[in-house]
Amino acid sequence: MITRDRLRAGIFLPPFHPNDEDPSLCFERDFELIQFLDQLGYDEAWIGEHHSGGYETYGSPELFIAAAAERTRRIRLGTGVISLPYHNPFMVADRLVQLDYQTRGRAMFGFGPGLLTSDAMMLNINPDQQRDRLAEGLDIIVRLLAGEAVSAKSEWFELREARLQLKPFTRPRPHLAVASAITPSGGKLAGKHGLGMLCVAASSPAGYDVLDTNWRIANEIAAQRGAQMDPSDLRLMAPIHVAETREQAVANVQWGFEKFLRYSYSLRAEGPVAIGLPTAINMDNIEELNRTGKASIGTPDDAVAMLERFWQKTGGFGCMLILAHNWANFEATKKSYEMFMRYVLPKFAGRNEAREGSLTWIRGHREEFSSAGKAAALKVVNAYLAEQAAKTKPEAAE
């Protein structure tokens, strides 16, 4: 049974890079952020793969992870996600094993069908083929990691006795996960192969509605092969920004939200509404936004309420992934991540309950303990005075 005191914290870095900034500096800012999160004690960071649009600019999350691993000590780094239909599965498996060694087991690997239709179109892949290709390629990768020699022929790849020349550094294999949004395909693959689930649409209305359904599907399919899903491998992603007040949080995110809007409307006519977000974040809609869980923009208590909502919906999950939305400037962004670790996660996890109990106990016995302490101190003073008096008596007699 999973307990809330074991909930982990992480980020999901698409990344969102406004296209009026220098790309190299955007990359460097992300590395600085990962280092900052590592120092704060964040557990995970997942980095996306995209190839068009000019806003989500990492074409290879593996390259980013290789560099980030050299700058950090503890935080685990995942591909969020490798768009598997775009790659030969053997080459993917070979790269991830290398990265498993380079990071000494800190690398994790998420897979998905590919988010941007424009990416698939450039590669002449029909969107209705992407989920089938994900399932097909994932099956090959799992077999290769298990040490099999794989011969397989598909319309998009062919392997002849393909085998990895290195066993994984992590035994029996590195942590693998699959993206899960609205359709049941992610849950099916997770249950079939024993994968973690990255619920990347957890805060959107449609994604939230099926959180428990898709997790149940994964568990049912795992049970068919005599296995169990581990709820600690269930990860939920949502936009969160924390500040001292709601007014400050709103002011912070308004700094960069308009740039996000421009990109969002470039993807789809509905813009942010398609994923449950409003066309503006202001004091008029912030209460509804927090109440419905579409995002948490506000105080630590607002973020705690979102975690509680997710916990009740799923029955417990392993990691809260904060969407690295870049709506606030870098200093406000770092402050938000710090406040989440300083105030939000401890309150939700009950980490200070014993401290509060201890303080309440002391307060309840304040007069008793205070009197006893004063009496003990007075006793020492009186003893000292008596000792000094005794030393001076013979002199007085003379």
Task: Please report the number of helical segments.
Answer: 15
- Overall residue-averaged pLDDT value: 96
Percentage of residues in DSSP E strands:
5-15%
Portion of residues within helices: 40-55%
Structural domains: how many: 2
Commentary on this structure:
The longest helix has 32 residues, at 366-397. The chain has an eight-stranded parallel β-barrel, surrounded by five helices. Strands 5-6 form a two-stranded antiparallel sheet. Strand 2, helix 2 (61-71) and strand 3 (76-83) form a beta-alpha-beta unit. It has 15 helices and twelve strands. It is an alpha/beta fold and 398 residues long. The protein has helices spanning 23-40, 61-71, 89-102, 117-122, 130-145, 185-193, 205-209, 211-224, 246-253, 257-267, 286-292, 300-314, 330-349, 353-364, 366-397; strands spanning 8-13, 44-47, 76-83, 107-112, 150-153, 158-162, 176-180, 196-199, 234-238, 240-242, 296-298, 319-323. Helices cover 50% and strands 15% of the residues. It has two domains: 4-354, Luciferase-like domain (TIM Barrel, Alpha-Beta Barrel), CATH 3.20.20; 356-397.
Entry keywords:
398 residues; alpha/beta; TIM Barrel; 2 domains; eight-stranded parallel β-barrel; two-stranded antiparallel sheet; 15 helices; 50% helix; globular
In summary, what is this structure?
The chain has 398 residues and is of the alpha/beta class. It is built from 15 helices and 12 strands.
